């Protein structure tokens, strides 16, 4: 019976197509072999989609395994496979991705019926802004690397200039592509588009993996800086690590310019890893949206807007946390960049976290309890962007959690009774609890259906805005207008239910806290590497890999949490 019901509309469509003009809003696939041999339209759609996703996924898996084998061989056998071989492989992958992106921009996206639907949830403005921000910093990083290698061209390979140049072209093209086409639900050339997206994802993952594991330039820069410091202080170079002898032959003739390039490279290095991770997340959503047809249930007719109303204590506490964190960050940067960083600045840094993290944990727990008390319906509609947000929150939190467990083992095994060690131990334990509780709160809030606050308040607000814009405010009326605005704000605040009010306060407080916790490690505040406790326990190279794996994920987690918390705030 089911076959007959499905086959009748197909014959009807064929008879209509002969007499009536074709509907331009639908794509016909009668010429494909898979569609001729399937009886159900829905079944053949699903089979074609699964086959395309499987093939493109296998392509990305093989590319990632090949690149990982090259990078691992470079680490364990630097004679047979060198960094130059890895750069050549990545340059070939970048060139293939560039050809596909240009073909998509000039060919695929301009075909008839190519983009009939656009995913309103995908490509939020904050994540596209992150692509531009991190992309710009990555371009500047490559410029510093080109300048540094150009000065030392007498002892460096020319490939160290060519590879960053290709990287600049790749970053610019990819950023433009993601800014304009991140919402596309492409309806033509499904398999080719899926393969191109997966190839680009695999390339970004390999670039991230290389940035995490390759400490060659960091070692070289640190050895030169230590040599300059020892000349300045008059100390003997007996305390140099074993790798310093390899880099003393390649020194800068002009130390001022070299120091600018070195400091800029070290400061901007985390942005490159962040750029790769953000691009992978946006490209994955595009890959899931290939061939997707959005029904009218998924289209947001009244998208909730961000309004700074109904919150008082959250912004006050969050602003206090941001101001205090900024002062701690500046103090840390001044002291940590000196020749001998004091233990007091590390104690102040960890103390700030030890005070802030419990407050964030308590807020997230209270918000989760309020979500459980609410009777909001769960949003069960298919949403690839929300599914990816959940996966990214859980996956990115593993970076900080894993790094915290490594720190706990090292600190407990050395001397946990020391003041600085006990503060660092408390920081690691509290960070684990804060990540877990915040993830539960954000994920629970993302699955709650939005309930508007009522049309009456919106119409009143719009009427007041129009009246205010039409009225010319004089200097004498300014005080009265400020008083009216304050009364209107308090009126809106008092009319919210206590559950929505508390949820908004907590969400806004957590947004500001995550912003300052994103700013501090992003702009060079890395006490887990600079205090020397874990580094002396695990060794330089091992702890470098652990930090470069966990730190970018931690920064990405804070940035992604801000977007999730803003959505929870808006829908509260």
Automatic annotation (TrEMBL):
Location relative to the cell: Cell membrane
Pfam families the UniProt entry points to: Otopetrin (PF03189)
Region (Disordered): 1-21
InterPro entries documented for this protein: Otopetrin
MF-aspect GO terms: proton channel activity
Primary residence: membrane
Keywords: Cell membrane, Hydrogen ion transport, Ion channel, Ion transport, Membrane, Transmembrane, Transmembrane helix, Transport
Superkingdom of the source species: Eukaryota
UniProt family annotation: Belongs to the otopetrin family.
Protein name in UniProt: OTOP3 protein
